[in-house]
Each structure stands twice: as C-alpha cells, then as structure tokens.
Amino acid sequence: MKTFNYVIKDEIGIHARPAGLLAKEVKAFESKVTISKGGKSAEAKKLMMLMGLGVKCGDEVTVTVEGADEDAAFEAVKKFFENNL
Amino acid sequence: MNVLSGKSVYKGIVMGPVVVLKKDDCQVKRTKIEDAEAEIARIASAIEKSKEQLQALYEKALGEVGETSAMIFEVHQMMLEDEDYLDAVYNIIRTEKTNAEYAVAVTGDNFAEMFAGMDDDYMKARAADIKDISNRLIRNLAGYESVDFANMEPSIIIADDLTPSETVQMDKSKILAFATVHGSTNSHTAILARMMNIPALIGVPMDLEQVKSGMTAIVDGFEGTVTLEPSEEIRAVTEAKIKEEEEKKNLLLELKGKENVTLDGKSIDIFANIGSVGDIGYVLENDAGGIGLFRSEFLYLGRDTFPTEEEQFQAYKQVLQTMAGKKVVIRTLDIGADKQVDYFGLEKEENPALGYRAIRICLKQPDIFRTQLRALLRAAVYGNLSIMYPMITSTEEVVQIYKIVDEVEEELANEEIPFKIPEQGIMVETPAAVMISDELAQMVDFFSIGTNDLTQYTLAIDRQNEKLDDFYNPHHKAILRMIKMVVDNAHKAGKWAGICGELGADLDLTEEFVRMGVDELSVAPSMVLKVRKNVREMTAEI
Lengths: 85, 542
Description:
The structure holds two protein chains of two kinds.
Chain A: E1 2-7, H1 16-27, E2 32-37, E3 40-43, H2 47-52, E4 60-66, H3 70-84
Antiparallel strand pairs in A: 1-4, 2-3, 2-4
Chain B: E1 2-5, E2 7-10, E3 13-21, H1 36-65, H2 67-79, H3 83-96, H4 100-116, H5 121-142, E4 155-159, H6 164-169, E5 175-180, H7 188-196, E6 200-202, E7 216-220, E8 225-228, H8 232-253, E9 269-274, H9 280-285, E10 291-295, H10 309-323, E11 327-331, H11 359-364, H12 366-379, E12 384-389, H13 395-414, E13 423-428, H14 431-435, H15 437-443, E14 446-449, H16 451-459, H17 477-492, E15 496-499, H18 510-516, E16 520-523, H19 528-536
Parallel strand pairs in B: 3-4, 4-5, 5-6, 9-10, 9-16, 10-11, 11-12, 12-13, 13-14, 14-15, 15-16
Antiparallel strand pairs in B: 1-8, 2-6, 3-7, 7-8
Helix pairs in contact in B: 1-2, 1-5, 3-4, 4-5, 10-12, 12-13, 15-17
C-alpha cells in the first residue's frame, strides 16, 4: 500500500471533468485507488462518489493505492494530481 | 396533403420544416418484467446511443463555443459509465424485476438528490447533470427522439401541449410557429406566441404518431389551419400570402416613434409585458414606452434551486439599465397554480388557482420574498422601477408586505448597501380587490388590472380547461364594469391604473379603455404598435 497527501490547487476543486479523467486513468490499473478527505473516502474510479466528496480548492486529500501494480498506479495518479488538480 | 383546423391564438402565416416535440420527461411507468438480463441489455444499447449523441454534441460545441463549454458533454459521457450509478440501476432491475426506464428514473432521482444536498454550489448544480443524463437514457430507452435546439433550423413546433418550463428553454430565434393538440387560448403556448409575434394554433387534431419531424408544414393563423406536406400549388399561394403580410407589417412599423395620442389629443401609455431578460429586445423593437409587467417567476422556472439574491439583482439591474429610465414594473413571484416548480416543494392542490400561490407563498415563506425584495430594492438604484404585488385580496396583506419591505430596508441600510424604495403597486386580479379598490388605492401607488385571473375568478371559469373556452367571454359586462370601478377609485386617490392582462391588447376594446380613463395598457410586445394605431385613429370624446 502506498499513500500520498495532496492539497488541491484547482479553483473549483475535484470537479466533474478531472474526476472523470481520473476515473478513466485509474481504470487502467488493477490497484484500488482511494481518495479520502476528512473521514470520508471514495474510490477514484467511481466518478459520482468521488464528486460526492465535495473536495474544494485548499482541501488536503489522502490518496491510497493498493494492489499488484501499485507502484505504477501510484506514479500515474500522483502525476495526474500534479498536472490536473 | 393534409389540412387540419384548430383555434388560432396569434394571426400570421409561415411555411417551414416541422419539429415534433415529444414530452421531454416522458412519463415513466413502472412495469414488471420477466427477463432482467434482457432489460440490462437494453440499457447497454441505450448507453451506447446516448454516448454517440453526447459525442456529437461535444464536437459541435467544441467548434462553436470552445473547449470549456463543450466539456460538459464529455463529462456526461463519463457519468454514463459510472459504476455506482449503473450498479444501482442494475440492482433495481434484478431485485425488483422492473423495466429499465423505471430503474433509471429512480436512480437518477437518488443521485441527483445526493448532489442537491451538498453545501457547494458547483456540486449542487451537478444534480441537473444527473437528471439530464438520466432523461437522455430514458428517452433513448423509450425510443423518443429528442429535439436538439442548437442544431435545429428555424422550425414549426408541433406538440401535444407545452409547459412553461419547456417553452422557457426553447431557443426562440428557432421557432417559426406553434401548433398543439391541446391547450387553451390562455395557455402558456398562446401567451408565448403572442409575445414572440409568431402564428400559433391550439386544439389541432393531429396524430403525433403520423406527423414526423422534417415534414414541411404551413401554419396559417388567419384561417386557423395547419397544412402538412402542402402541394406545389398551395406552396405558391402561401408564399404570396407571406409576402403580403410582410408588407402590412412594415406599414405598422411606420408607427414607431409616434405618440399614443387620440385624434382629439388624449394620450395613454402603451407598455409591454415580458417574461425574461431576453424579451427586452422585443420591447425595444416594438417601441413600447416601458415594461408594464415583468413576470419575475421566469427567473425561478427551468432550474433546480432558488435563484440567489445576486442572480436576481443582476437580472433586474440589466433590465432597468437597458430600459434606460423608462418605467419597468416588476411583479414579485407569482408561482403556484398553473406554474409549478419542483424545488418549492408545493403540495398538489385540488384547486390550484384558488390555492397556495403568489403573494400567499411570499407571506407564508418570507425568506423567499425577502431575497427577491432585497434584489429589487438594490436594483431600483439603476433605473425607473415599480414593484407590483400579485393576488392581493385584502388591505391586511398590503400591511404585511409593507412590514417586510420596511425590515428589508432596515437590513440594507445597516449593511450599507445602496438601495432605493421604488413605487409600489398591486395587481388587481381578484373580485375582492376590485370591491375594496377605494381602500387599497389609499395604500398603494398604482393598480394594474390582471384581466386573465380577474375574468376566471369573476366568471368562475378555469383558464386551463379547454372545454370552457366557449363560456369564456372576456368582454363580459361584469369585467368591464369592474375595470371602470378600479380606474375611478385609483383616480379619486390620485393614483394611476393600468391593465396588464390579455384584455389590454384586445383591439376591440382599446377605444373603451381610453374613454374609461385607463392610464396605461401593458400588452405583448407584438401588440404595442397595433394598439397605438387604434389609439391614433380614435377620438376620446364621443
């Protein structure tokens, strides 16, 4: 299991489009990717649940990656956050 | 060729392609099914179809409005792949053995509710997206064709009937005419058609299964006929008629810039009724002296949450600034009765016209009213505003309204936000208000007579019931005497009185109204110049 924390910089937070792109991104991996914020969490591949977290600009989220291909998935997801959020 | 007759609500003639509008939120019925997997397979193909449509919309929007606005269609495609959403749908089908349409409708509502309940405006707005994709899926499941207004060429809209929220969402520049199977002469379709200056027919016995989008049709508001797939001969005759009408219209336009004054020098104000900021174009185009009725409820329709103070303020300010000092009478919220909005959570009523509506909602749920009043008082700084309160039946209601206005005034003063207390008047649309108009005249700055409701309440005739059209006599003596009484009582108190109902535009009555001393007639923008013509050709003294 690998985790990283990230402070959201996008001004409207994890909104529809990045959430959709992220869902697409993680579906390519076997590992389970979870985003948590303040006690609530959602699987990254589940677009609506992820949007349902209501992550805003300035919020810190914890991203957990767990599974057979977690190293590759971790790198990809981390890069995704840095580029899009 | 197929010629059908209906009742004309606006005279004019057009020829063009037909778009058949089927109910957008088509009635979803719950039915039992045997084979759950077959239903799920139907969903899979409906999703494919939906995604294709969304991709086409995305590409079109990309070319026309750019990537930022086009993105929403990409997101909709992604939402259609959401596992939780699809799992919820499949689960309902498998466990409850119901049809796919029902399962999608229920799931859509549940997810939309989740987003609507979030404390973030951006996320709240996503509830509409969920509903949108769910409706798209349901339409595709049911095999309904949806109308794509963005891609549509100017067309004749044919439908069973149209609701206010449907008409609000239409791109009005794309509509040549309306023809509906149902609807009364006072329905929203009719009002909209008059406002937009386009021919409209109601009660046309069309078989919507036979009429296909893309057919050519002629809507003739003079003859009250719809001709489907006209012959070459009829097409030629129609083209000549259209040209002749065009010339008549140009003649009317010569009246632009002229005063509304009778041959013997009596003048009257002719203002326009509008329902959205977008209608101001019609007001200016037709040279109205002001706006006599701005129906603010259109700010509340066609959306999922209450409009904020800021949204309302911006809309009112825009109208006032565009009208540049000309009078703008904004009517406060008149929701309820035939205009329903989901998020108000209003209960179904036996007699909506006699029910919880308009000022009654505002006085019972003052928070809704306060937000609107704050926006209005703030906007008043930017032009010549008058506020008008609908559905008044007693002096006590006016006292209560003024109390709330006083509180709002104090709030704004304390917050040091610029505002102004504008002229305040009431709609006279109940027989009760007519009978006590002498007392009401002492309390308010003006009266505007809402003849549609006043007629329905006085004659005990339901406006929405098309069977009663034959009994509905808008020229009933009772109504005309009431109007006279209201005008006289206003003048005794030194106040002005106008008419903002449909009757104000009745060209057979212009003369009578001027002679009664009516100070202002507020009519559909398309009627302004016609009424002006009447005024200029009459004498006030007999």
